[in-house]
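Title: Comparing notes on inverse folding

I've been comparing how different people in this forum approach sequence design from structure. To keep things fair, I'm posting one structure and asking everyone to reply with a full sequence. Here's the target:
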């Protein structure tokens, strides 16, 4: 992402955060504990919503502009590490993590299957993936619009895809999906509103 994009990201997302995203983040992060790895942590919006129960929080972010803001937010927090790494090659031992967190990340990575495979690698047996992602619509008319807009949207929004079926991708990567909720992301563009959030266990 460009320097300008990183600067305005939080401001652009603020209305949606207030309308629903902040509450959803708190909801999915409420029970995290042990060693946690957040992939694509961006500017660190999730930091305000993590409970105090974790032992170690690893925040990975490959974009230098986003990572600078992430480092500012994480500065001074105990047991928090910011790591310069992409989600397909995490510098973390296999089975070393209790929870992997992915929020609004799997839409924009080049290979979501590879990212999910890497998440599964670093998780301990029975570890969990917590996810919050916007996805392809179940409504045929809206899906057609998503498909029409997607080629342009990817260029404007940092490779963000509108038509990924993320729940299916998670299951295909070897996870058992639990507690899934689908809801419209309020105050967002209509073609970005369909979301899925929940947890999946490394099977």
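Reply #1:
Here's my take.
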């Amino acid at each position: 992402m460009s320097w300008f994009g990183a600067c305005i990201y939080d401001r652009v997302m603020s209305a949606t955060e207030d309308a629903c995203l902040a509450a959803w983040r708190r909801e999915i992060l409420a029970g995290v504990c042990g060693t946690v790895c957040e992939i694509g942590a961006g500017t660190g919006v999730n930091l305000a919503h993590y409970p105090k129960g974790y032992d170690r929080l690893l925040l990975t972010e490959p974009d230098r502009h986003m990572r600078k803001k992430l480092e500012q937010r994480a500065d001074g927090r105990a047991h928090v590490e910011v790591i310069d790494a992409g989600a397909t090659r995490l510098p973390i031992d296999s089975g070393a993590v209790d929870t992997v967190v992915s929020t609004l990340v799997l839409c924009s990575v080049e290979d979501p299957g590879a990212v999910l495979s890497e998440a599964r690698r670093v998780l301990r047996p029975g570890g969990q993936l917590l996810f919050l992602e916007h996805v392809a619509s179940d409504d045929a008319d809206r899906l057609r619009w998503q498909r029409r807009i997607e080629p342009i949207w990817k260029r404007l929004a940092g490779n963000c895809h509108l038509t990924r079926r993320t729940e299916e991708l998670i299951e295909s990567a070897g996870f058992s999906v639990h507690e899934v909720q689908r809801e419209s992301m309020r105050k967002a563009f209509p073609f970005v509103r369909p979301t899925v959030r929940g947890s999946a266990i490394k099977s």
